[in-house]
Write a structure and sequence with these properties.
about 20% strand; globular; alpha/beta; about 300 residues; TIM Barrel; eight-stranded parallel sheet
Length: about 300
């Protein structure tokens, strides 16, 4: 039984990673989860300088998920390279670094630094606000997405994965723009913009007013977008959005994803990503699937 998949020339032992921002950089979960069991570990977003993040409260539970407005709090590339990469290198798993920034120059600076580091893939978070363009996210405008993809691709030594925002009119337009500009793979979806109001205190549940909705509530939207993008581009897709079990993961793979990412589920069950790996294997045995890649895009 083969569970190995290949993303942009990098082969993972199985198709499961963790969603950026939900797993820290691995160390927080290492005592609870066998990182060796994962196909890859995806880091929290890393910027060129430390980011403090948004004011608190930053997280609120919702029906079928959660809203977060953490604001990509991170220690910056210097600390990440010195502390987190050596930690992850102890494990038999691929390392994906999520990169964030407020300008193209910020992204390029981090990507150039990572060119000297032993990491496998770079996931570029284009849901960050572009400070030079009035705060609209890089991933919400095809021209801006194309520009940042070209700049990052030119600077990167590793293959790049553009992580697409679902907060757009046509996800396939964004996917095509990223592919045409040189992206080696795509991640989707990032969180959906949402809001929660505390009716007893008459105030917003998170200080930022809005935040990113994640969890099972967004899974049908994510599966639909993965299916659409898989039919619009030729590069591999890492599907994510509300995956809690092996059957959820299989659903994304059948929609066209090569790999999947488990995120919000880890807050409820730290072992969720490893359990998803096992449940994918159980599914393959049950239905006598010899190669996980045979399931990719099998629904038409």
């Amino acid at each position: 039984m083969n569970t190995a998949v290949t993303i942009a020339g990098v082969t993972w032992k199985n198709p499961v990673t963790v969603a950026s921002g939900t797993f820290g950089s691995g160390a927080e979960y290492a005592e609870l989860v066998d990182l060796n069991a994962l196909g890859a570990v995806t880091s929290k977003g890393v910027a060129n300088v430390p980011w403090a993040g948004n004011p608190t409260p930053r997280i609120a539970e919702t029906y079928g998920g959660m809203i977060n407005a953490v604001g990509l709090q991170n220690p910056g590339i210097d600390v990440f390279a010195k502390r987190d990469i050596p930690f992850l290198k102890q494990y038999d798993t691929k390392i994906i670094v999520n990169v964030c920034g407020r300008s193209i120059e910020d992204y390029v600076e981090v990507v150039e630094r990572l060119g000297e580091e032993p990491v496998d893939l770079l996931e570029i978070n284009v849901s960050c606000p572009n400070v030079k363009e009035g705060g609209i996210a890089f991933g919400q405008d095809p021209k801006a997405l194309s520009e940042i993809t070209k700049a990052v691709k030119a600077a990167a030594k590793q293959s790049i994965i553009m992580k697409l925002s679902p907060n757009v009119t046509d996800i396939t337009e964004m996917a095509k723009a990223a592919e045409a500009a040189g992206s080696d793979a795509l991640s989707l979806i990032n969180t959906i913009t949402g809001m929660k109001i505390d009716v007893h205190r008459r105030r917003f549940a998170v200080a930022n007013k809005t935040g990113g909705l994640s969890g099972p509530a967004i899974k049908p939207v994510a599966v639909r977008m993965v299916y659409q993008v898989a039919h619009a581009v030729k590069i591999p897709i890492i599907g994510m959005g509300g995956i809690t079990c092996g059957e959820d993961a299989i659903e994304f793979i059948m929609a066209g994803a090569t790999a999947v990412s488990v995120g919000t589920a880890t807050f409820r069950d730290a072992e969720a990503p490893v359990r998803v790996v096992k449940e994918i294997e159980d599914y393959m045995r049950r239905y006598q699937v010899e190669d996980i890649n045979d399931l990719r895009g099998c629904v038409e």
